[in-house]
Amino acid sequence: MWAAADLSAELARRYPYKVESWQQLNAQLVSALNAQSVSTALIRGVVMIVVVLGIASVLVVSVVQKRREIGILRAMGATQAQVLRVFLLQGAIVGAAGSALGVLLAVALIWAFTTFVKGSDGLPLFSITLAPALALRIALIATACGVLAAVAPARRAAALDPAQAIRL
Fold first, then answer.
1. How far apart are CA 89 and CA 101, in angstroms?
2. Alpha carbon of 21 to those of 27, 81, 157: distances in Å?
3. For every residue of the chain, which 3-state class applies, written as one string?
4. Within 13 Å and on the Cβ side, how many CA atoms surround 92?
5. Are 160 and 73 in contact (CB under 8 A)?
6. Which percentage of the chain shows pLDDT scores above 90?
7. Were both Cys, which of 13, 26, 107, 142 would link to 99 (CB 3.0–4.6 Å)?
8. How big is the chain by its Cα radius of gyration, in Å?
9. What would the pLDDT profile of 85-138 be if each residue is shown by its tens digit?
10. How far is the C-alpha of 56 from the C-alpha of 54, rounded, in Å?
11. pTM, full prediction
């Protein structure tokens, strides 16, 4: 479908007829589709940033609330690396759980849309599917974002001085 411009140029070179691709005939539509793609990518990026900041804020609150427990762990011999891993794991779990719920919600919404939104002929208006590879890629990105969001709170927790943390 997107090779129509190349094909029309080839046909125009071969034959003495005026040949136009559908992109040339519908330039405004192509422009609108490109603008929609750019705005969709921008919205996805902003949503991802908001989600990462939300996970980070939850983990920062968790570090503040568990300050004494972190101090006790450190006083009992837990290393900074072990405390760091605990909070990174917590970020990974939050990211993985959120991505699993997101994929399930997407599958449910796709099912609802294709089941209940029908054309006048009784057939679904659009054929919508979620490719398993895409769902897996999205889940992996969300989990990685959860780990990245946990880096700053994990470093803060690992750097706590056990004596001061227990005293507060």
1. 18
2. 10, 60, 60
3. CCCHHHHHHHHHHHCCCCCCCHHHHCHHHHHHHHHHHHHHHHHHHHHHHHHHHHHHHHHHHHHHHCHHHHHHHHHCCCCHHHHHHHHHHHHHHHHHHHHHHHHHHHHHHHHHHHHHCECCCCCECCCCCCCHHHHHHHHHHHHHHHHHHHHHHHHHHHCCCHHHHHHC
4. 7
5. no
6. 42
7. 142
8. 26
9. 999 998 899 889 999 999 999 999 999 988 888 888 888 888 888 999 999 998
10. 5
11. 0.70
Q: What is the dihedral of CA 22, 28, 32, 33, to 10 degrees?
A: 0
The structure tokens listed for 135 are 């769902």
Query: In the numeric block, which tokens belong to residue 44?
Result: 């996805």
- Tell me the two tokens of residue 56: 């980070």
Scanning the structure block, which residue is given the tokens 């699993």?
100
Q: How far apart are CA 138 and CA 44, in angstroms?
A: 11
Q: Which tokens go with 154?
A: 């994990």
Cα(11)–Cα(140) distance, integer angstroms: 44
Per-residue confidence band for 168, with pLDDT thresholds at 50, 70 and 90: low
